Amino acid sequence: MIAAHADVVGSLLRPPELLEAQRDHAAGRITDAQFKAIEDRAVDQAVALQEAAGLEVLTDGEMRRMSFQSQMTQAVDGFGAWDLDAFVWGEWHGAEAVGDWSGARPAELGVVGKLKRKRHLCAEEFVYLRARTARIPKVTLPSPGLFANFWSPERSIGAYASIEEFLADVVAILRQEVEELARLGATYIQIDAPHYPLLLDPATRAFYESRGWTLDKWLHMGIELDNALMEGFPGVTFGFHLCRGNQASRWLVEGGYDSIARPIFQGIRAQRLLLEYDDARSGSFEPLGCVPDDKMVVLGLVTTKRPDLETPEDLVRGIEEASRFVPLERLALSPQCGFATSILGNALSVDDQRRKLDLICEVARRVWP
């Protein structure tokens, strides 16, 4: 099991050069080769930033993705028409600096054909990253249950008679990706599963229940799907990331882990739980008492939503409080989520991002020398 005490969740802020290149490439103004060279430079910068901070675990910053979950829809036929709105709809809340934002689920959203993989989702990301660092390269995959969003009773029945049938194919494709990543030497794969804490919100829960699953069934079936994805890879450490929405410095829901802690923490077969704990919306550390002895908890105490820097003393206090429920040697520290869950990015500068990563490593060295 990966035992690193300083971790990152996944995404980093995209450089302006990369965002411009994405627009130019989509419009046909630059070639594939020119675009890939700019993508590669962005990943190189992400690696340099994380290594300079002192992280043992690195990602490629998700520089090649529109959203943390979009590599699935980009690499697989059958999803029909989609754009960034497919991943960011909802009632988003933000501090005064960014304000609230609301977006409806796109009416045309819905899987329209049998899923068929065109290419691997993350193999390029991992192979490029592996060649550029001697540290632990981590790659992230979306939880299968996230794609319940793409099954529509109006649009999808012709392809999949039920949401269960659809999600079974999602699991099969994602599992093929895990198999390929493991073959290529990946030892740390993170499954991103923000939809579980979203069940704390009545409006969000109503959407999932409209797909035919009660809350209890959704928890049971969702965890079963995630475990099917991870089963049978003894050389791979799996992380499991939970948050309450992270987009353009906004959030979707609030509430502690209390009502979902036991089924998720005890049912999921991942070895590392990466949990959002950057403000009072996340509740207390008490639900950590449900974490089994064979899991590490990565405390997301450093916010990616605001530029203000936490103090080392506050982070140490948070770690000490969490250690009342999980032994210190099974705790670690990270940001609460990515810095840029999609190309929108959070309202921070690259310097703010660097200072937060530096702080995480500084505190980790202090607490776990």
Can you walk through the features of this model?
This protein has 369 residues and is of the alpha/beta class. It has a single domain, classed as TIM Barrel (Alpha-Beta Barrel), CATH 3.20.20. Helices cover 38% and strands 13% of the residues. A seven-stranded parallel β-sheet has the order 1-6-7-8-9-10-11. Strands 2-5 form a two-stranded antiparallel sheet. The model has no long low-confidence stretch (mean pLDDT 95).
The percent range for helix content is 25-40%
**Count of strand segments:** 11
pLDDT averaged residue by residue: 95
- What is the gyration radius calculated from CA atoms? 19 Å
- Point out poorly predicted stretches: none
Overall number of structural domains: 1
Query: Could you name the CATH class?
Result: Alpha Beta
What characteristic shape results from the CA principal axes?
globular
Oligomer: single chain
If you consult CATH, what is the topology? TIM Barrel
Secondary-structure-derived class: alpha/beta
Distance between the terminal alpha carbons, to the nearest Å?
19 Å
How many helices? The count is 12
Main attributes?
single chain; 369 residues; alpha/beta; TIM Barrel; 7-stranded parallel sheet; two-stranded antiparallel ribbon; 12 helices; 38% helix; globular
In short:
The chain has 369 residues and is an alpha/beta fold. It is 38% helix and 13% strand. It has twelve helices and eleven strands.
